[in-house]
Amino acid sequence: GIILGIETSCDDTGCAIVDTEGNILGESLNSQHLIHLNNGGIIPPIAKDLHRKHIENVVDEAVALANLSFDDIDAIATTVKPGLPLSLLIGMRYGKHLCRKFKKPFMPIHHMEAHALTARMHDPTVQFPFLVLLISGGHCLLAVAVKVDKFLLLGESIDDAPGEAFDKVARRMKLKNLPEYSQLSGGQALELAASKANDPLHYKLTIPMLQYKNCNFSFAGIKSQLLYQVIREEKSKDVAADSPIPGVYDMCASFQLVVTRHICHRVQRGMEYAERAGLIPPDKKTLVVSGGAACNNFIAKGLSMVCGELGYKMVRPQPKLCTDNGVMIAWNGVERWKENIGVYTDFENITIENNAPLGESLIEEVENQR
Ligand code: ATP
Ligand code: FE
């Protein structure tokens, strides 16, 4: 099978063609990142217009790079949930249009399932069932991937996603005004600033949810604690509007450290629960970490320590596959194609869903454990 995948759920227009062995035959991506950075966040109608402007070229480029024609493609996989409705609609309409034009089956794809399964594309040792942590600008969830179309949700963020918290903190600390930081996402800027710190323990922030027996996450409280420190520093030092906050590097490091400790603590709880409930086989324990915030090497180092302690192998896709892209959608199409799951020749009634939880929730079961 050769599958073409289309991704437009948020602010990246992506397309890729992937074969059954996981070879990327052609790929193309148009990122709206810089435009939204200048607007201070994503404005959905602008995202939609940019998707509409680029979708045709992005798809044509991926097909041309693959040196293929549509005759060679078996099906078209497209993200239909979850995401920004206006953005999702552009991809779905274009995907269906191609299916009609070239008489191909349509495969609706869940964006988060695609993130979770990407790790299997280049690493055949990632076999079901495995634990997966997805940390990005819009999501934070911990789940067991049982099979291609079966996921069990162990925990999720009760407020902000980690990437969102990184972005908000970076904006408030005016990191963009530092030299060499203007093109970076909030998360990248914060990681770079944190690497320049003298004392990551200078600002004392408390780890949230330590007393909670579930594996949910919370990042809004850490963010507020830090922003309170920002205000204190600004008041005490009387800083000019555009200049960086005093103590900015230590603040970034303190924030990153507490975020990391929190994520590690929750993941460790999830591992312990999965083990007790028999969800993960004791002889092959794997943690997949993906999503934009998985690019953070400090968080990854913390997680690899937890994995070492509990006998897990950690797998992190390369950075370009952690953030949104067409490859992961095509690969999810491949995985489904192989098992003949979700391949539709009659697809007119398939529609987008802006909210679509990943899998079946075990959050209550986790909470009620002893
Ligand atoms: P979703 O995939 O949930 O719809 P998204 O499109 O915002 O959300 P991604 O494209 O996967 O997510 O990732 C972007 C997010 O990742 C941003 O919030 C960004 O700040 C964060 N991020 C990127 N690099 C890093 C890093 N090194 N450390 C922390 N966060 C990072
Ligand atoms: Fe994503």
From TrEMBL:
Keywords: Acyltransferase, Metal-binding, Mitochondrion, Transferase, Transit peptide, tRNA processing. Its EC number is 2.3.1.234. It catalyses: L-threonylcarbamoyladenylate + adenosine(37) in tRNA = N(6)-L-threonylcarbamoyladenosine(37) in tRNA + AMP + H(+). Residues 23-331 form the Gcp-like domain. GO terms for biological process: tRNA threonylcarbamoyladenosine modification. It is found in: Mitochondrion. Binds 1 divalent metal cation per subunit. Pfam families: TsaD. CDD domains: ASKHA_NBD_OSGEPL1_QRI7_euk (cd24134). InterPro entries: ATPase_NBD, Gcp-like_dom, KAE1/TsaD, TsaD. Its cofactor is a divalent metal cation. SUPFAM superfamilies: Actin-like ATPase domain. One of its GO terms (cellular component) is mitochondrion. Gene3D superfamilies: 3.30.420.40. Its main location: mitochondrion. The keyword tRNA processing applies. Homodimer. Required for the formation of a threonylcarbamoyl group on adenosine at position 37 (t(6)A37) in mitochondrial tRNAs that read codons beginning with adenine. Probably involved in the transfer of the threonylcarbamoyl moiety of threonylcarbamoyl-AMP (TC-AMP) to the N6 group of A37. Involved in mitochondrial genome maintenance. Belongs to the KAE1 / TsaD family. This is N(6)-L-threonylcarbamoyladenine synthase.
